[in-house]
Amino acid sequence: MSHLYTNIMENNIIPIFGILTGIIVPVAVFIWLYYEGKGKRETVLEIAKHLDDPAKLEELLGVFEERKKEPIDYRRGGVITIFVGVGIWFLGFFALGSLFQGIGFLVGFIGLGTLIAGYLYPNTGKELTNAVEEFEKK
Fold first, then answer.
1. Is the alpha carbon torsion for 94, 99, 101, 104 positive or negative?
2. What residue spans define the domains of the chain?
3. In sequence order, what are the residues at sequence separation of 6 or more whose Cβ sits closer than 8 angstroms to the Cβ of residue 77?
4. What is the pTM of this model?
């Protein structure tokens, strides 16, 4: 009986670790983000107790906010996606076959579309100002 158990464990150890990884990683990330934000929340609460001016409190919250205020640069994302597609295409060409070549072309063309969208739709404040000024000149 012991030999049968050992044989089953040896043959199934990789799928077991795969399943456990799919469970452990999201839980670990959730715990990590909770504890990372906990200190910030406690600090903001402690400072807020001693502040009487609501404007200063709003400024403090703005400092702790991690999201970027600038819009996404589609040109940068497009170039990155194009090169990911080229990498997948080379992987298919040299090692894995025509399926990966097709996937590489698909990803590359998605990147090309994203790059073109970045040029057609300006997204930074400076680019929008320049676009409006060019339109007003016409």
1. negative
2. 1-67, 69-138
3. 111, 114, 118
4. 0.45
Rounded to whole angstroms, what are the CA distances from 75 to 81, 110, 118? Answer: 10, 12, 5
pLDDT digits (tens, 9 = 90+) for 79-127: 899 999 999 999 888 888 888 889 999 999 999 998 888 888 766 666 6
As a whole number, the mean pLDDT across the chain is 77
